[in-house]
Amino acid sequence: xxxxxxxxxxxxxxxxxxxxxxxxxxxxxxxxxxxxxxxxxxxxxxxxxxxxxxxxxxxxxxxxxxxxxxxxxxxxxxxxxxxxxxxxxxxxxxxxxxxxxxxxxxxxxxxxxx
Length: 114
Hints:
- The chain is mostly beta strands.
- It has one helix at about 105-114, and strands spanning about 20-25, 30-35, 45-55, 60, 65-70, 75-80, 85-90, 95-105.
- It has a five-stranded antiparallel β-sheet, with no helix packed on it. A three-stranded antiparallel β-sheet has the order 5-4-7, with no helix packed on it.
- The longest helix is centred in the last third of the chain and has 7 residues, at about 105-114.
- It starts with 17 loop residues before the first strand and ends with a helix.
């Protein structure tokens, strides 16, 4: 069975971000995130995160002030406990993110799998 990452996108501004788990097991969690103008509090995650912005425009800010502007196709690897936040997402379009969370103890095996 196949699905499409762009199916069921909202036609209007969302009141809050939507997080949808696409796959999860003990080695990883794959999540689709939809944003329309939302920002986030600071994240300090226990797992590594690889994230790609598939649609829309957004800005991530890391502790210390480094800002990264993202356009479709841009991706980042964020190490566990590297504090970051979403400081801006375009309110005029649906931002579609794909985030892969990898527990720290599985990094070497996971990077070989990917």
